[in-house]
Amino acid sequence: MCAYVGWACVGVVTVSGRMDYENDTDPKQITSLLTVYEPDDANRTINATLIVIVEDINDNKPVFIKDVRNRLLQLLLLDVYRAAEKN
Questions:
Q1: Residue 1 pLDDT > 60, yes or no?
Q2: In terms of DSSP bridges, do strands 41-53 and 29-38 run parallel, antiparallel, or are they unpaired?
Q3: Which domain holds residue 46?
Q4: Rounded mean pLDDT of 52-80?
Q5: Domain-located, residue 12
Q6: How many distinct structural domains can be found in the chain?
């Protein structure tokens, strides 16, 4: 199926599954050679190289070895207590 932009038929390139930058088995770059045929004349072709580069984005929540929230709350309360003692 085509979407026409001017005289050109424009298509969409999709991947068949999820690509994960952090997964060592997933490629970081995919290079494909495309050959496009004219619908009315299969002898008229053009070749192009399509390069897909997978970039890293921060899509994971931070993970702490220990739950630090209780310790941060203790330190905050200690600061409040010390500030109150000075006044």
A1: no
A2: antiparallel
A3: 19-86
A4: 78
A5: no
A6: 1
pLDDT digits (tens, 9 = 90+) for 8-35: 677 777 777 777 777 788 778 888 888 8
Per-residue pLDDT, averaged over 35-63, amounts to 80
What's the farthest any 2 CA atoms get from each other in the chain?
A: 89
Beta-carbon contacts of 37 under 8 Å, excluding residues fewer than 6 positions away, are 44, 45
Which one-letter amino acid corresponds to residue 63? V
In sequence order, the 6+-apart residues with CB closer than 8 A to the CB of 13 are 50, 52
The number of beta carbons lying within 10 Å of the beta carbon of residue 58 is 6
Tokens describing residue 4: 């026409």
In a domain, 70, yes or no: yes
